[in-house]
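queue> holo job accepted (guanosine-5'-diphosphate)
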Amino acid sequence: MGEEVPESMMNSSVEKLSVAYDSESAGYRTSTNFGDKMYVVEGSEYRGKSSVNVTIFDHLTRSWIIPTVLGLKPVHVGGHSAVLLNNDRISIVKKDSMLDDSIWFLEEQKKVLGSEVVAWSKGVIGNAPKPIVISGPSGVGKGTLISKLMKEFPTMYGFSVSHTTRAPRERELDGVHYHFTDRISMEKDIRDGKFLEFASVHENLYGTSIEAVEVVTDSGKRCILDIDVQGARSVRASSLDAIFVFICPPSFEELEKRLRARATEAEEQIQKRLRNARAELDEAKSPGLFDHVLVNDELELCYDNLKKLIASDEIANPLHRSTMKNLKVLVSDVEVKTDKTFLLHCDDNDQLLLDISYLKGGAPGRTRGLDVYPIEPLGDAVNGSTQL
Ligand SMILES: Nc1nc2c(ncn2[C@@H]2O[C@H](COP(=O)(O)OP(=O)(O)O)[C@@H](O)[C@H]2O)c(=O)[nH]1
Ligand SMILES: Nc1ncnc2c1ncn2[C@@H]1O[C@H](COP(=O)(O)OP(=O)(O)O)[C@@H](O)[C@H]1O
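queue> job finished
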């Protein structure tokens, strides 16, 4: 790519350029100024294969940057519009896409080794229940409590299936208890930005993929994560808005008794888990990390307390589910009305007003909280004369 920005891409925060490459490919490009940089999003199809590339022009150094791009990318079709929102993300609205795949966001992430990083996030209509992060030392009873919850309310809760490099235990199933993997593939997936968080626990690698949480949440269930304290800290720092619960043993002796009685680990592993347990119990006291601490002494009592705290959160934060969430329309064109509202022209001659005033979450996961409202069927509006 050359050093200079083409004249046609300057001086505009929202700009669309149609580009024809050759007879077999077609592309569409937007350039959006954001601080000292201009983000160029270029979608193209070549021999039936779609790609979306992001390049950045740094106005200060007058040089082009190819950033590391994380997250699930949109599949590009007939073009897109771009608009800068709240000075913190760029919204991309795809044309010729179903509504549930039409709204995407591009966000700047923390630099890695001095290099620019951006991440994609798919926009979702309506809100979702907050995930629940459950942490606590090995053997405290996290798995037991989570299983009880899932058994009693199978349609309400879903488990985030983590990846791990540890070997499966007897009766553990791949894809159910964990995605069992090897270190090389997991490290590659981490580099590719597929993980919300990861940590080295008891000398194995564990991590929550973005997909693991989002598939549960997309299905309308409340996602439950069983992760260690380091993982909880990473999730706290991420865009995922969750409730954090720490499960404590009634005593260290009881924890050791449970670990031994479970009989899933060799002595060396038990010792390692007990050493780490002391550190976790200390770390859990960090201010602002956990919202709730439950002591798992009598199992039924602890389980009731867990259900109570989840119920009280549900009452305090009632869900706003858009009635239009499952609307299946093909967005044929997009008009940016304000930085919070877009007018979506649909293939059946209807128009929808997309409202992005109340976004929640974001890259590298989904961006939720979008809303859509139907507008009178097209008439004069085709010519742009409808008042919003
Ligand atoms: N950070 C992080 N920790 C995880 C994840 N999945 C499991 N863990 C934690 O890893 C630790 C070991 O889990 P596991 O090997 O199943 O042993 P157990 O805790 O003794 O049952 C526990 O503290 C889990 O909470 C994950 O995706 N991320
Ligand atoms: N409240 C409790 N009282 C006695 N034993 C318990 C209690 N909660 C769990 N256990 C037992 O302790 C062991 C460890 O529980 P588990 O759920 O595997 O812990 P974690 O998932 O935190 O490692 C299991 O054998 C489980 O049956």
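queue> Residues 299-316 form the longest helix (18 residues).
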